[in-house]
Amino acid sequence: MIGIVFIAVLVFLFLVGVPVAFSLGITSVILMYLQWGSVRLGSIPQMMFAGVNTFTILAVPLFLLAGKLMNVGGITTRLFRLARTLVGFLPGSLGHVVVVANVIFAGMSGTAVSDASGLGPIVIQAMRQSGFDTEFACAVTATASTIGPIIPPSLPMVIYGMMASTSVGALFIGGIIPGLLMAAIMMCVVAYYALKKHYPRDPFPTAGQLWEALKGGILPAVTPVIIIGGIYSGLFTPTEAAVVVVVYAFFLSTFVYREMTWPKLHQVLRETVRDSAAIGLILATATLYGNVIIRAQIPQMVLNAFTASIHSPLVMLLILNVFLFIVGCFMETISAITILMPIILPLLQSTGINPIHFGIIMVLNLMIGVLTPPFGLVLFVMSRIGGLPIDRLTRALMPWMGALLVALALVTIFPGITLFLPRLLGLGG
């Protein structure tokens, strides 16, 4: 009975438009009252504060800050030029450039929205000028931005690692091959459309052009190597890696490229504080919610219902994938992870599913959700940047969602795609 009330209240609050953080808090308080007959108000802030008073959570505002510094400090533009020089001569030209640029950009930003909003204006303008249609330009840019949270560093993986008590470093390393797999599949789709629609391509770069592009973009491009090398060598933790990325991005923007100004820095800091506060409130109320539902034994009820009939890890993963795909259409990624992991974690443990493997599956699956209406954040960002109505952009995205589903299926069916590198480097898995 308590479980039914819990779900009904939470769904009702979502439907009437109550923000996620307040929905979780209100539902938790109601559940506490139903279970214990009273609410100890003093325990609520203690449980909420415990959820954000962790070293891991420090990475959240830092990765947000790094992505914003890149967007306003000239780093994004130089990465685009580098990617264009490296692969712009291939059939599909700027389509491949977008994918490669997002692979490089992912090494510093960690969020899909940062990738889309940072590269979007540059890429779409260049593609229009080169003769690409707007639908293709917006669709490939939106889809390629989903690589950002898969290739390290990744903000959703930091949140998942905290909620699932799993090594963030192992998650970072585990996302490398799946992220490159996504990029390869996207480049195949780009090549198909390029040959079908006869899109133009850039001439093969000269040695001088290649040198100029490398000179401008090589410093930010090596960021993933610094992060992965530092984590693997034990030089710094994933949270400390976020500090390194921020300092590096600030140094490049201010002292190397000289494009950072006081007004830009003020804007970046304000936006970072605002976004960090919103995420922090969600995490705090999610901790309260997680404690309450565990004490109410709701995860145990779900576990008993599933394990009575499902014993195969693959079947469980397929069911969870369908569930996450539906959830991703209606809920933002971080909210979905914080709400669902306390319930899903016992299912993983009971069926022997590796939490690192599932972490990549969950983030990849929810990335498809950021492209779908009615709540896809990247969908809305690209619609605004490209000046394309939501319905036209959604239709243009359909083949690209198919490509992401292929990547998701491969990562789900073959755990080695995710676990090979963590096992090779002795990080678990």
Explain this structure to me?
- The structure is a single chain.
- This protein is mainly alpha-helical.
- The protein has one domain (42-424).
- Helices cover 77% and strands 0% of the residues.
- The protein contains 22 helices and no strands.
- The chain has helices spanning 2-15, 20-36, 43-52, 59-72, 75-87, 94-105, 112-129, 134-144, 155-164, 168-174, 176-197, 207-221, 223-233, 238-256, 262-295, 298-307, 313-330, 333-351, 355-369, 377-386, 390-413, 416-424.
- The protein is globular, with a radius of gyration of 22 Å.
- The mean pLDDT is 86.
Topology diagram in text:
Elements: H1 2-15, H2 20-36, H3 43-52, H4 59-72, H5 75-87, H6 94-105, H7 112-129, H8 134-144, H9 155-164, H10 168-174, H11 176-197, H12 207-221, H13 223-233, H14 238-256, H15 262-295, H16 298-307, H17 313-330, H18 333-351, H19 355-369, H20 377-386, H21 390-413, H22 416-424
